[in-house]
Amino acid sequence: MNQTKQCTKCNEVKRVSEFNKDHRNKGSLRSYCRSCQANYNRQYTMSNIGKAHKALSKAKYNRKLAEKKYGISIKDTLKIYDIAFIQAERECIYCEQDVPRGQMTIDHVLTFAQGGTNEFSNLLPACNTCNKRKGSKPVLEFLKESCDEHVTKQVVFRLALRQRINYEEMLLKLQAPEQLQEIVSQ
Ligand SMILES: [Zn+2]
Ligand SMILES: [Zn+2]
């Protein structure tokens, strides 16, 4: 019985117990040894595409949680390249500070409870601080207390572009989001 296997990454011959099972291929082992696999996973998580994948599954997971919580169905057309596009932006939309590479977060402008969707048109790039501070506050309220008029206009303008409506229509939409009143007030 062959009790050893050569790792295709580090080329070392190791005991088979040092290889994980390959779940995509029943009965066989992964070609990378455990430590090479762990290294690879770490590098992938740190990479831009790895970060985008993580942010995408988080957004989809949170959407599912909200659907369960509110008993509604939330529109979700989010794709990996939408997330990657937002993460590649250099400036926080709210504070206009440069955000270090890989640290941009995804802000849902209207939260799910406010009738927001998990679609590109509802997402903006924000730094972690602004995103946390905004929390579940209505976006116009947050803009009023934390940002100047120029930023407010920028935000409304960008959202209007993404939703293919005009500035005034977008402003109205933000002023009167379809709140899930009875749920939010519970
Ligand atoms: Zn190895
Ligand atoms: Zn910010």
Short descriptors:
2 domains, mainly alpha, Herpes Virus-1, 186 residues, disordered C terminus, two-stranded antiparallel ribbon, elongated, binds zinc ion, 8 helices
Q: Under the CATH scheme, which architecture of the largest domain would be assigned?
A: 2-Layer Sandwich
Main sheet specs: 2 strands, antiparallel
Helix content: 40-55%
Low-confidence stretches: 181-186
What's the overall average pLDDT, rounded? 91
The CATH class of the largest domain is identified as Alpha Beta
Bound molecules: zinc ion
| The CATH topology of the largest domain | Herpes Virus-1
Strand order of the largest sheet: 1-2
**Helical stretch count?**
8
How does the overall form come out from the CA principal axes? elongated
Number of separate domains: 2
> What is the CA-based Rg, rounded?
22 Å
The span between the termini is 64 Å
Helical/strand content category:
mainly alpha
Protein name: HNH endonuclease
Keywords: Endonuclease, Hydrolase, Nuclease
Domain HNH nuclease: 79-132
Organism: Gracilibacillus marinus
